[in-house]
Design goal:
This protein is an alpha/beta fold and 676 residues long. The chain has 20 helices and 29 strands. It has five domains: 7-58, no CATH class; 85-101 and 114-216 and 224-281, Rossmann fold (3-Layer(aba) Sandwich); 296-436, Rossmann fold, CATH 3.40.50.980; 440-486 and 501-538, Luciferase, Domain 3 (Luciferase, domain 3, Roll), CATH 2.30.38; 543-671, GMP Synthetase, Chain A, domain 3, CATH 3.30.300.30. A hairpin with a 6-residue loop joins strand 25 and strand 26. InterPro entries: AMP-bd_C, AMP-bd_C_sf, AMP-binding_CS, AMP-dep_synth/lig_dom, ANL_N_sf.
Length: 676
């Protein structure tokens, strides 16, 4: 973080104006802005008596000017689509017309060209329209990653059918909930997941499931068919027409950018998954200022394409699940809307990550959650640097391993971004600022109204001033990240979830003035003077102990580094008769290799006394979502109760070491007699 400048620093800053101006003009390329105008802008910025803000403006000027040029290119594309009222289908078909024989998707030994993707999508559209499905209907898609996955929802969107992209790992009640909350009228399921549908379909008392069942392929030979009444979609589609041109003349051409495209579900780390609404052009909206609210899908794909300087001949390695916004919106969207090629994998594999990148000649790769740490944990081998990947982008790269990761694997650029599937506020790090999740240029703060507001870090409750309005955070002060909701602007709109009640819980009213509304991300970030944002924690994860706030993500980062990048979850647990919550860490160590003395020494050296976990639980695995986010709820419910837990628990001593937690210790704490 930047601190206030003294007089000497101010003088040195002013002496550097000319150098900064020249550098900025080079950044924006061939003097696109005349030197005289640029110098005038710098002189304007240094007026007044606020040297810290002046310094920040000058230092960030080259980055901000470069961003302005990229934004201009992006908005030209968006404006063109908006004027034409273009949908995802229309943009995709224009891509197909440009290069029909270019490979769109690669997976294992198979591939689909753009023309083949269009042909399959057309057949899907014709078949489901003939079956009586119409615009506005919802169909659930339960399927592992396959080449035809994006073709199915793309084809359904031609009819105006909304596809609910169901997490393929869900079972029983959570699966039933995800299907019914979107009001699905049919289910498309792959053969390997047919048993999951059969299980909930046969449960007594389960109501509201769709009666129309489609299977993407026939039942496995030699096994009983769990869904004997399901239609074989592959057989039906393949028998419909042998021609490459499918007759779609009977389908009304009434799809608009305002129409819903898909539902993508939240990961369910805090309860049942919620279906986030993705409108027909949500993939465009990740970085625009002037598009209309319906351009949400398109925004996401084009935003990354322009801001991260993708190339038309790039091949993206996408090992993420296609029901997730990162893999299914940004990764697939870059193919459908920008004409790039993506190499898919059925399931992420850390040991095969670089092998796949080499095999498919990938130049760009995606990551989410803990993927980078998993890859970093693999033994060193020649393939670490034999690949051609120059850029990796995604969200969730921990600052603690960032430098080690890029150094070992020779990655020139990391494009860390921040955002949520349902949110209206997104950030993107385009200048390799280590640890940052993105920034907002100084010139854009008025037209991209995102900010941090004060909150109780433990509860997430927003703090308001005496006038009843929220309080903006200063540089270096943690706060909840919020974005103003403006239904008339795509960038600032909030479509929300299929469940309207769940949507309303994410909305703040009367934030800075009467009548304004903001999206509450629920995440605590910190901003520096240059406009860079850094993720700190999620509200509710932070807890208070000994009068201090403890950010779980920071403690997790420290412990993970000490124990050799093993999985770790940190959370607060209640202690009888004591205010606040004590820290507890759960570490995955199935082989029993963690040295508790070394861990204790590392914790003492890296964390203040109040942030040191009182309990350490060593377990064989940590419950994790399929998008590689740790599930803490079950661990937190278990707490340190030895009646529930069979794993060893270690207890912090007054000298900073850990010893085995015993039944006597447990009883002493429960009775409120422990001196902690």
């Amino acid at each position: 973080m930047l601190v206030a400048l003294n007089v000497k620093q101010k003088f040195l800053t002013l002496c550097g104006i000319t150098a900064v101006a020249v550098a900025a003009s080079l950044v924006i390329g061939q003097r696109l802005i005349p030197q005289s105008i640029l110098t005038g802008l710098v002189l304007y910025l240094i007026s007044g008596d606020r040297p810290t803000a002046v310094y920040a403006s000058i230092v960030s000027l080259p980055r901000d000017l470069r961003t302005a040029v990229i934004f201009l290119k992006l908005n030209v594309s968006l404006y063109r689509f908006e004027r034409a009222g273009a949908t995802v289908i229309q943009i995709f078909e224009s891509v197909v017309a440009r290069h029909p024989n270019k490979v769109a998707f690669l997976m294992d030994d198979g591939q689909l060209t753009f023309a083949q993707v269009k042909q399959l999508a057309d057949r899907i559209a014709a078949h489901f329209y003939a079956k009586g499905f119409r615009k506005g209907d919802t169909i659930a898609l339960l399927m592992e990653t396959r080449l035809e996955y994006p073709c199915i929802w793309l084809g359904l969107s031609k009819v105006g059918i909304v596809t609910a992209l169901i997490n393929s790992n869900l079972r029983k009640e959570t699966l039933r909930h995800s299907i019914t909350v979107a009001n699905s009228k049919a289910i498309i399921v792959s053969s390997e997941l047919a048993g999951a549908i059969a299980e909930i379909n046969e449960q007594e008392g389960i109501k509201g499931l769709p009666v129309h069942l489609f299977r993407t392929d026939g039942a496995d030979t030699g096994s009983s068919d769990p869904l004997p009444d399901a239609e074989d979609l592959r057989l039906s589609v393949d028998s419909g027409s042998s021609s490459s041109n499918v007759d779609l003349s009977g389908i009304p051409n009434d799809i608009s950018p305002k129409d819903k495209l898909v539902y993508i579900y939240t990961s369910g780390t805090t309860g049942m998954p919620k279906a986030a609404v993705i409108t027909n052009l949500s993939i465009i909206l990740l970085t625009t200022f002037i598009a209309s609210p319906e351009y949400w899908y398109t925004f996401m794909a084009l935003g990354c394409y322009y801001m991260l300087s993708f190339r038309d001949d790039d091949i993206i390695y996408n090992s993420l699940p296609l029901y997730h916004s990162a893999g299914g919106m940004i990764g697939v969207g870059s193919v459908l809307l920008c004409g790039m090629t993506a190499a898919l994998r059925k399931k992420f594999s850390a040991s095969n990550f670089w092998t796949d990148c080499i095999r498919y000649k990938c130049t760009v790769a995606q990551y989410i959650g803990e993927i980078c740490r998993f890859v970093l944990m693999t033994p060193q081998k020649p393939t670490d640097t034999q690949h051609s990947v120059r850029l990796m982008f995604g969200n969730g790269l921990r600052p603690q391993i960032w430098p080690q990761f890029v150094s070992r694997f020779n990655i020139k650029q990391i494009g860390e971004f921040y955002g949520s599937t349902e949110g209206n506020s997104n950030l993107l790090n385009i200048d390799n600022t280590m640890g940052a999740v993105g920034f907002v240029p100084n010139f854009a703060k008025a037209i991209y109204p995102v900010t941090l507001i004060r909150c109780d870090e433990e509860t997430g409750e927003i703090i308001r001033g005496s006038n009843g309005f929220c309080i903006k955070c200063k540089a270096g002060e943690p706060g909840v990240f919020v974005g103003k909701i403006n239904p008339k602007k795509a960038l600032n709109s909030f479509v929300g979830y299929a469940d309207k009640a769940a949507s309303e819980k994410k909305v703040l009213h009367d934030v800075f003035r009467k009548g304004d509304i903001f999206f509450n991300s629920g995440d605590i970030l910190v901003q520096d003077l240059l406009g860079n944002y850094y993720f700190k924690d999620r509200t509710g994860d932070t807890f208070r102990w000994r009068g201090e706030n403890v950010a779980t993500s920071e403690v997790e980062g420290v412990i993970t580094t000490i124990v050799g990048l093993k999985d770790c979850a940190v959370y607060g647990v209640d202690i009888p008769e004591i205010e606040g919550k004590a820290g507890m860490a759960a570490i995955v160590d199935p082989e029993g290799k963690v040295d508790m003395d070394q861990l204790a020494a590392g914790i003492r050296a890296s964390l203040p006394a109040y942030a040191r976990p009182l309990f350490i639980r060593v377990l064989s695995e940590v419950p994790m979502t399929t998008t590689f986010k740790l599930k803490k709820r079950d661990l937190q419910v278990d707490g340190f109760d030895l009646n529930k837990i069979k794993d060893p628990i270690y207890f912090l001593q007054s000298n900073g070491t850990y010893r085995l937690f015993t039944a006597d210790d447990h009883e002493t704490i429960k009775s409120g007699k422990a001196r902690l």
